[in-house]
Write a sequence for this structure.
């Protein structure tokens, strides 16, 4: 009986194929890992914006419910907020944001600025971070509310 020799078949990947697939996987993982800092930065910014909008809503409600003639009493009383935008007392340790309020007594009725409108006041709210020493706040942004005398 004559035996026929079957050709030997390979069932594994070649070295070149393994190296190419490893290089491709490494490249993809490097790209994914490089996106982590970008995602964390966007998450921090979104959290900051959310806290600032909640704080602005609190201040806006206070300014709109304060009697018109008592609006200047809001000046020189900084308001403190935590990371979620909730109002805090000035001596609490969780304070992260500070809001300083200024009130302009009357606004001009026209673009020349000659005639003033005593029934309209501009409330300027300046947000800043509260650094640990609380002496040099870093500005984040300014918002303006117009309050009319009812």
């Amino acid at each position: 009986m004559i035996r026929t020799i079957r050709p030997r078949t390979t069932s594994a990947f070649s070295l070149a194929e393994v190296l190419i697939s490893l290089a491709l996987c490494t490249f993809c993982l490097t790209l994914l890992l490089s996106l982590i800092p970008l995602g964390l930065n966007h998450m921090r910014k979104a959290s900051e914006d959310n806290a600032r909008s909640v704080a602005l809503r609190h201040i806006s409600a206070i300014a709109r419910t304060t009697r018109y003639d008592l609006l200047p009493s809001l000046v020189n009383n900084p308001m403190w907020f935590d990371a979620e935008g909730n109002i805090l007392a000035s001596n609490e340790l969780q304070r992260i944001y500070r809001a300083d309020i200024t009130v302009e007594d009357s606004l001009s009725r026209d673009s020349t600025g000659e005639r003033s409108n005593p029934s309209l006041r501009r409330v300027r709210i300046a947000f800043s971070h509260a650094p640990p020493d609380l002496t040099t706040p870093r500005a984040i942004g300014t918002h303006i509310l117009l309050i009319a005398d009812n």
Observations:
- The first strand starts at residue 79 and ends at 81.
- The chain is about 35% helix and 25% strand.
